[in-house]
Design a protein that fits this description.
Blueprint (H helix, E strand, L loop, with lengths): L1 H17 L11 E7 L2 E2 L4 E10 L2 E4 L5 E6 L6 E2 L4 E5 L2 H36 L5 H34 L1 E3 L4 E3 L9 E2 L7 E4 L4 E8 L3 H9 L9 E4 L11 E5 L9 E8 L11 E7 L6 E5 L4 E3 L2 E9 L8 H16 L4 E14 L2 E6 L6 E5 L8 E5 L10 H9 L3
Parallel strand pairs: 1-23
Antiparallel strand pairs: 1-22, 2-17, 3-12, 3-16, 4-11, 5-7, 5-10, 6-9, 7-8, 9-11, 12-15, 13-16, 14-15, 17-21, 18-19, 19-20, 19-22, 20-21, 20-23
Helix pairs in contact: 2-3
């Protein structure tokens, strides 16, 4: 019996000890690499998608109707102002001019006769030798003849103009495109587009800015530039840098109320005709801010719901402060001291980003110079995570040489 009781007690003791919860293993700190946020001067460009435009461009439309009888240019070539481009069948317009000139001679003869009759009746009327009615009729006939001559003269001018319109010339120096009509095609007044001609030197480059940037660009417009100022440059579609620099030509008169955007037009020299109308390019506006800025690697930034954060390493053995964030850090410090765990923890900071420069990004606000920013392992962190230093931790910020090199690359 005693053996049975002893066995039961032994089994109960074993069951009791087996149900005791096992101790939770301590959370290991996440290994990270740090970099010190430092203020430094960087060279970078604000970039805007842009499109090239001709300063002057016009569609050539016929002002008289007829068949195309001559095309006197090479498609895609440069043409000079006044150069003959197209000829429309002139025969009808030459005949109309000849008819108008003949009619003018007829009415001029009638005017001469009416003038002679009026002079004669005026003399007789002064001698009371003719009826008053005949004198009045002679004066009216003279006035009608003068009006007929004037009308005939205007008809001659119209016929000459129509004959002139049958020859279409270049309105200005520029480049002409593909002809939209061929020899023998019938063209209609104001409807048939013959071709398009545009200027090519200088060339305009249009892009949009936010209305918040208007004051800055108005300041740039007033700034004096020399021929070699690199304030405005463009990157071509093949990412090569266009060799000539530009200047502000026009700031649009109004902001689009729906988008809040405003159009800016730059003007670039185009002596080699390298820029074509309608090309896509990227306008690069050289940063003129002389003050140093905080620059950190872009991989340190975490995006959450459209907002941006970085993790800053703090030694949690710090005095307690009044604000909530510091208070939280101080409370964590007390807990760490009591548990004798590593001192470093990562705290999340909301930041405002500036220009991206290669692998780095400018921080406008959210952290201070000298903060230790986590650059590796951020995906494994949360606010207050324990961290330990990796082998590649750095006490220096992003190198300005890297920023300068990436900014000077041909975009």
């Amino acid at each position: 019996m005693n053996r049975v009781v002893s066995g039961i007690i032994l089994i109960a003791c074993l069951a009791l000890f087996s149900c005791k919860p096992k101790p939770v293993p301590p959370t290991l700190p996440t290994p990270v690499n740090l970099i010190t946020a430092t203020a430094q001067r960087v060279l970078y460009y604000d970039k805007y998608p842009a499109t090239t435009q001709a300063l002057s461009q016009v569609n050539l439309l016929p002002e008289v109707q007829g068949y195309i009888t001559a095309i006197n240019f090479i498609e895609g070539s440069n043409v000079k102002k006044g150069q003959v481009l197209y000829e429309i069948d002139k025969r009808l317009y030459e005949a109309a001019l000849n008819t108008a000139q003949a009619n003018l001679k007829v009415v001029q003869g009638t005017l001469l006769q009416a003038q002679q009759d009026a002079d004669r009746y005026e003399y007789l009327n002064s001698q009371n030798a003719v009826a008053k009615q005949l004198y009045d009729h002679a004066v009216i006939t003279l006035q009608n003849s003068k009006s007929q001559v004037q009308a005939a003269d205007e008809a001659v001018k119209t016929a000459k103009t129509n004959l002139t319109y049958s020859t279409i010339v270049a309105p200005f120096d520029g480049t002409i495109g593909f002809s939209q009509v061929k020899l023998g095609n019938m063209v209609t007044v104001g409807q048939t587009v013959l071709n398009t001609i545009s200027t090519n030197n200088p060339m305009a480059v249009d892009f949009l800015i936010n209305e918040k940037q208007l004051m800055a660009f108005e300041g740039l417009e007033k700034r004096k530039q020399d021929a070699h100022d690199s304030l405005f440059t463009i990157a071509l579609p093949d990412n090569t840098l266009y060799p000539h620099t530009g200047k502000i030509s026009v700031i649009d008169r109004a902001v689009d109320p729906q988008t809040g955007a405003l159009r800016i037009r730059l003007e670039f020299p185009n002596p080699d005709n390298a820029l074509k109308v309608g090309m896509s390019c990227v306008v690069r506006v050289h940063n003129l801010e002389p003050a140093p800025v905080l620059l950190i690697p872009g991989k340190a930034v975490v995006e959450q719901m459209g907002e941006y954060f970085v993790f800053v390493a703090k030694d949690t053995l710090i005095p307690e402060h009044a604000d909530s964030t510091k208070k939280k850090e101080a409370e964590t410090a007390k807990a760490d001291t009591a548990q004798n765990v590593p001192k470093l923890r990562a705290f999340q900071k909301k930041v405002m980003l500036g220009q991206t420069i290669g692998p780095n990004v400018i921080i406008k606000s959210g952290i201070d110079e000298g903060d230790q920013v986590v650059i590796d392992g951020v995906q494994l962190l949360h606010d207050g995570s324990k961290i330990s230093l990796g082998k590649q931790s750095s006490k220096e910020g992003a190198k300005p040489e890297e920023a300068k090199t990436s900014a000077n690359k041909k975009d």
